[in-house]
Amino acid sequence: MYDFSALYEATSVQHAVELMQAHPSAVLIAGGSDVLIKMREGKLAGAELISLYKLDELREVTMDPDGSLRIGPMTSFSHATKSPLLQKYMPVLGESADTAGGPQLRNIGTLGGNICNGVTSADTASTEVAYDAMLEITGASGMRKISIHDFYKGVGKVDLQPGELLTGIIIPKESYEDCYGYYIKYAMRNAMDIATIGCSVNVVLSADKKTIQRVRISYGVAGPVPMRARSAEAAVNGQPVSEATIELFGNAVLNDVNPRTSWRASADFRKQIISETARRGLRAAVERAGGVF
Amino acid sequence: MVVGKSVKRVDAFDKVTGRAKYTDDLADKSALIVKIYHSTIAHGMVKSVDTSAAEKIPGVVKVLTCFDVPNLPFPTAGHPWSTDPHHQDVADRLLLHQHVRYYGDDVAVVIAEDEVAADQGVRALKVEYEEFPFVLDVQEAMKDGAPQLHDRFKNNILAHTGYEVGNFEEAIQEPGLVKIEGWYDTPIVQHCHIENHICYAEEQFGKLVIVSSTQIPHIVRRICGQALGLPWGSVRLIKPYIGGGFGNKQDALYEPLCGFCCQQVGGRLVKLDVSREETFVSNRVRHAIRYHITTYARPDGRFVARQMECYSNQGAYASHGHGIAAKGAGAFKQIYVDDKATKADAYTVFTNLPAAGAMRGYGIPQVSFAIESSVEDAAKALGIDSLKLRQINMMPVGYVDSFSKNCNYFDSHNQCIEKADAYIDYKRKHAEYANQTGPIRKGIGLAIFWYNTAVWPISLEASSCRMVMNQDGSVQFEIAETEIGQGADTAFAQMVADTVGIPLEKVHVLTTQDTDITPFGTGAYASRQTYVAGFAIQNIGTQLKNKVLSYAERLMNKPAAELDLVDGIVIEKATGETVIPLDELATTALYSLETAEQFSAEGTTQIKSNAYSFGCSIAEVEVDIPMCKVKLVKMVNAHDCGRLINPQLAEAQVHGGMSMAIGYGMGEQLLFDPKTGKPLNNNLLDYKLCTMLDHPDLKAEFVENFEPTNPFGTKALGEPPTCPGAPAIRNAILNATGVSVNQAPMTPHILFERFKEEGLL
Fold it and tell me: Parallel, antiparallel, or unpaired for β B698-702 and B629-640?
């Protein structure tokens, strides 16, 4: 039995915007894997809900005419994992999604929800940050497009104004083309867990597979929001595929991150894992790209 | 004969088709809902509870607070009652507490028409406290000046016992001894049974009827009577199918409070369904115990003297109390037998933490971690193979414990080790894996354990049962020993079938215990049920069979002594020829116009014996040092639990126990904020119970030495499988890395600290 006062079902994006305007204190519910838990805990008790469940138009992965991948934010984790387009062009996103929770959660939880709740540990967020995803946000005055880097404002806070909802996650073609990614979820268990550290690495190698042309790395739980390790990326861009580069990368990421000590893990322990996942993530991404050590 | 065969569970069909009814299925939907307000401080006095806002919420029927409950302190432990006041459990609970002793203590309840209103009511209560200092650490709590939890227990010491076998101080004077010592810490864990505790109550026919998810219906009836000031017979306790218990439900949990709520709303039906978050904190947990073990050994490996100190963290209320630490202390002197002296001191101490009670293993998972770690450490210090060191010192064949009179009849430990080794190749690997280098290393570790069956002679062992025969020769079988998911009903049915002489499908086990109907008995704990029910079934089943044969004698004019009942047919012993089918005989007897008789038998069987149950666990691991992670590659347990009643169920029991041991060794630990005493991870996301993907293939092996004390040759298997796994994993990590980890669970956080200390990182 859940304690909510009203449920409004949106039948289109436009309708959802109208409902948000009519019920400004209402909470959006997509898959419900966060909202229902908060409601059960009493944090959202008595809330009004606007359900996005019927918005099938937001529930698919397609390719835009310019070659960008467009991920509907209502796409579930399991649909992302099974999407032929993602499997072909950006398998790491589906692989990241496949590490979240258990099968039941992955069938209801959505990729949009995973970033709109603004948590640093979100498994798909690190990969989207590592691929410089663009976000389409729709409100009463129309649609705006922002970088995922500008979307995160702080713990649990994202750049969604009243009456706005996320309507598209876009991976530009130049971001995924010739690019190979790898996601490491470091958690205490092999399933049903939250990341202690999430690390998503992707690389573009030179034609001869001997040089790292571009590397991007993003972490979950290394800071208050998913974050890139920019100085480490800069240090490794243009470096040869080698053990020394791996070592350089593993050390350099520590200059970019500032993890906290909490009861969940100490900062020193997180740094150990941040450094080691950088090494292993880069190695795996390079190997996927055809590089040989 | 069906004993010894892997017959299908008698409840399998109903359980897999959803027909089996559990407490919540049985509760009428009209039930009022009870929700508990739990203390939000670790220690203090409730000064006032403002209920006005809660009472205004639509649907709220009644609010009861700690100022409304009777002053009738009661014990909660699921022990058999003792008529000797000195052996009775500590009565330190009230239904709700003004003096709150841990974060999560029960302060007030809201009774409402539905769950939402009850939750809203709880959130609307305003509780004022006078805060006291609190203490979480067991040794801190013993110090002078530490916050006191219970007036009559000075320095928070609930109990302190000790023993000295031989003269310890003299023994350690022997020249040339090597001294090895270590501190070993075990965590607070919770049972995590699938079905949280739930109960409901209503008044019917002048009685308070409580239906509860419990392991011990007759004991809970007694405790409800004590807590509510009712004659025990005025409480009727019913136990349907339950979704596991593992000892948490071997305590009166919320049945007394639920009964009180029912009384306070005029006897209306009220239901109290505990959430998972509450289960972690406000039910029972396993005692965290800290040990200090000192071993004095000769260079050849013989233990001359060992000493153990143990500090058992009881939490806020006595519950099962010192029994847990004391059982471990008893194991210490028995599993290894020192040449000259053994000394132990065990303290059980109150702290401002959730109350610790019974949990699968009852002190043996804790003490096994300490003992088996200390033996491995001793082997390392002495430069002796650790298996050999165990074999030099472990309980010899023929050993008799002076207190329980248990005898080590067989060479069970060596037989179990051999069986486990044959599966996993321990001896070769243990030598091969020593002295590895590199970031990823393999290791293998072994641990043995001591266990005994049932509670005699510390406590009562008796079992009552009833058998009533129908026209078709089938039998209703009623016993107070409970099915809690482990398969007890099936084992009982097998033993009844063989004893009476009827086919298995003719045995109808009445799975629901109802204290108004079911004969008296104490329930599921101490790995006792198959053992003690075996005596009861043999006794009562033989009586029933004799009644059948006597009737057959009169009817068929053949001496009963020459007859037997086999597979539902009365036969002539000598020839095996059919005398009369049982259905015909039973029908004739029931409808006889001259000598009508329903064949039935019932009674109490006293048990005055106990039996050792031994075995080992071997774990193989792969340690990823830079990632601070341990992967379990393979694991095997080997047990001598006597003759197997049902091999497949026995195997399942072992798998489940191994799984709990993996969690105990690698992931599970209830954490508390040191600044507030607040639980940090009382949910299944943050409390790292292992998932299927964290398990290797689990292998169960058995050595079937027929237990001489028991009519079916069987003994404990319920708890033993969970005892040796954690130290086996610990010793495997040591084998792989050379690093000893002296606290469970051995999480990546702990491994990181230890690997850094030892220079591996």
Answer: parallel
Q: Which of B273, B307, B328 is the last residue in one of the domains?
A: B273
Kindly state the average pLDDT of the residues B164-191.
98
pLDDT category at B76 given cuts 50, 70, 90 is very high
Which residue, among B546, B370, B330, B554, has the nearest Cα to B451 in the 3D structure? B330
ipTM: 0.96
Taking CB atoms and an 8 Å cutoff, what residues of chain B touch A263?
A: 671, 673, 680-681
Q: How many CA atoms lie within 13 A of A39 on its CB side?
A: 20
- Has residue B215 been placed in a domain? yes
Kindly determine whether residue B692 and residue A191, on different chains, have CB atoms separated by under 8 Å.
yes
- Residue among A42, A263, A276 whose CB faces B119 most closely: A42
Do B278 and A40 touch, CB atoms closer than 8 A? Answer: no
Mean pLDDT in chain B? 98
**CATH assignment of A4-51?**
3.30.43
Instruction: Measure Cα distances from A26 to A5, A21, A35, A47, A48 in Å.
Output: 10, 9, 12, 6, 5
- DSSP H helices, chain A, are 13-22, 35-40, 77-82, 84-89, 91-97, 103-108, 111-116, 123-130, 148-151, 173-176, 230-236, 243-252, 267-288
Domain topology for A60-174:
3.30.465
**B468 — contact with chain A (CB < 8 Å)?**
no
Same domain, B545 and B435: no
Element (H, E) at B310: strand B303-315
What's the length of chain B?
761
- Alpha carbon distance B473, B450 (integer Å): 43
Residue B43: band (very low, low, confident or very high) from pLDDT cuts 50, 70, 90: very high
Is the CB of residue B692 less than 8 Å away from at least one CB of chain A? Answer: yes
pLDDT at position A110, please?
98
| pLDDT over 90 at B178, yes or no | yes
Q: E strands of A79-164, at which residues? A: 134-139, 142-147, 152-154, 157-158
B120 in contact with A at a CB cutoff of 8 Å?
yes
B176: which strand partners?
none
B70: preceding bond cis by omega (within 30 degrees) = no
pLDDT of residue B540: 98
Q: Is B299 within 8 Å of chain A by CB?
A: no
pLDDT at residue A277 above 90? yes
Domain of residue B315, residue span: 134-188+285-394
- pLDDT of residue B373 exceeding 90: yes
Residue B18: how many other CB atoms lie within 10 Å? 8
Of A42, A102, A266, the CB nearest to B123: A42
CATH 3.30.43 segments of chain A: 4-51
C-alpha–C-alpha distance, residues B661 and B653, integer Å: 12
Percentage of chain B lying above the pLDDT 90 cut: 100
Task: Note whether B726 and B619 are same-domain residues.
Answer: yes
Tokens of residue B144, six digits: 């002078």
pLDDT recorded at residue B479: 98
B748 in contact with A at a CB cutoff of 8 Å? Answer: yes
A vs B: CB pairs below 8 A: 61
Angle at alpha carbon of residue B337, lines to B335 and B340, rounded to 5°: 155
The residues that bridge with B464 in the sheet, in sequence order, are B604
What pLDDT, on a 0 to 100 scale, did the predictor assign at position A1?
83
pLDDT tens digits for range B398-440:
999 999 999 999 999 999 999 999 999 999 999 999 989 999 9
Q: What is the mean pLDDT of residues B90-96?
A: 98
* CATH code of the region A179-288: 3.30.390.50
- Residues of chain A within CATH 3.30.465.10 domain(s) are 60-174
| Most A CBs within 10 Å, among B628, B631, B633, B682, to test the A interface | B628
Single pTM value for the model: 0.97
Minimal CA separation from B51 to chain A, in Å: 19
Tell me what the mean pLDDT of segment A3-18 comes to: 97
